[in-house]
Amino acid sequence: MFEPRYYKNFGLEEIARKVADGQRLTVAEGEKLFACPDLNAVGSLAHQARTRLHGNEAYYVVNRHINYSNICVNGCRFCAFSRKKGDPLSFELSEEEILDKIRTNGNDLTEIHVVGGCHPEKPLSFFEHLIGKIRELKPHAFIKAFTAVEIAHFAKNEGIPVGDVLARLKAAGVMMMPGGGAEVFSDRVRKLLCPEKLEAAGWLDVMRQAHAIGIRSNATMLYGHIETPRERVEHMAALRELQDRTGGFVCFIPLTFQPSNTPMGKMEPTTGVDDLKTIAVSRLMLDNIAHIKAYWVMMSVKLAQAALYYGADDFDGTVVEEKIGHMAGAESQQGMTRREIEAIIREAGFQPVERDSLFRKAGHFPSNGDCKVD
Ligand code: SF4
């Protein structure tokens, strides 16, 4: 936090006052933060908000990602992961192959993160059975599975309501949902980049229904392509509004667009300044979402470390094997050990805290994995 007159240099004195008082920022104020040429003026405000919530702690989770298939009926222009069925680079794992991947990890996994493309044929019963088997194999791990886009796709394929899909997957063992597929809620952007994908209102409605039955979730924003700063802030405001109603979002994850190997491959990737500012504005706008993630796989480990000073409080986790970002050219390693993550967080000057999917601290994980919305 700088002296009040420092913020005045950039016309941020009213925003600085509101941040100090814990007041909500408007969309116009979020835009003003993006327009501010001084990254550290914005970052210092975000760090103030982050420190008030989390002190000197920075979280991580011992998790494993499973991508069951990259076959997808959609053709989002920013996606390097998906392939059509029959493409030599397409893959789909059998239930046994997925379970083998989970078996190769030690017993200390606390989160299993399962996502894939919108597969044209796999029935909902395949996923119910798979989740049940994962549950048997790792009864104490949190199963965080299927984006809102996948849930809506299952509903369409089966010809049943979204609420029925959510109820069946919850009964099978899904305890939480990842936040992917939100992209940017702007209809303008979605029409140009992902016209076949579940629309913004549909994404928010799946999350609303999930939260209503006690499945909490994360939320993401894919940025750094053709969206404007205002569209980013409006995306955050839409999440904030839903969070006021449901309280079901646990963590917000700004995801850096990786252009390599996508039809938008000629675009320049985001800069470090843009990445850090986006983390900072997220922290400041999303006053009702407790956690902001610096996802090291997409941001790089070095920038994620710096992001802990710009509003982020979570480093994500051990991950083990990651395909979505790496097929798009992410240069980070595939996974990290607990020891590596802790050393990186400590070196940045923060206290590493192991958490579960709901950010309960190690030693306080309930043995039954209860995840009801409070
Ligand atoms: S982003 Fe998701 S929905 Fe879009 S093509 Fe890729 S896997 Fe399919």
What features would you highlight for this structure?
TIM Barrel; 374 residues; single chain; alpha/beta; globular
Explain the overall architecture.
The structure is a single chain. The chain is 42% helix and 13% strand. The protein has helices spanning 4-8, 13-21, 27-35, 39-54, 95-103, 124-137, 148-158, 162-172, 187-193, 200-212, 229-246, 272-285, 296-299, 301-307, 338-347, and strands spanning 57-61, 63-67, 111-115, 142-145, 176-177, 216-223, 249-256, 291-292, 314-317, 351-355. The strands form 3 sheets. The protein has a 4-stranded parallel β-sheet. A 3-stranded parallel β-sheet has the order 9-1-10, covered by helices on one side. The longest helix is centred in the middle third of the chain and has 18 residues, at 229-246. The radius of gyration is 20 Å and the shape is globular. It starts with a helix and ends in a 19-residue tail after the last strand.
Number of strands: 10
CATH level 4 superfamily:
Aldolase class I
| CATH fold annotation | TIM Barrel
Q: How are helices and strands ordered from N to C?
A: HHHHEEHEHEHHEHHEHEHEHHEHE
> Approximately how much helix is present in the residues?
40-55%
Q: Can you tell me the CATH architecture?
A: Alpha-Beta Barrel
CATH class reads: Alpha Beta
Structural class by secondary-structure content: alpha/beta
How many strands, which pairing sense, and closed or not: the largest β-sheet? 4 strands, parallel
Gap between N and C termini: 33 Å
In the predicted model, the low-confidence regions spanning at least 5 consecutive residues are 367-374
Spatial order of the strands forming the largest sheet: 5-6-7-8
Overall tally of structural domains: 1
Tell me the number of helical segments per DSSP (H or I, 4 or more residues long).
15
Shape label: globular
Write out the distinct hetero groups bound to the structure: iron/sulfur cluster
Mean pLDDT: 93
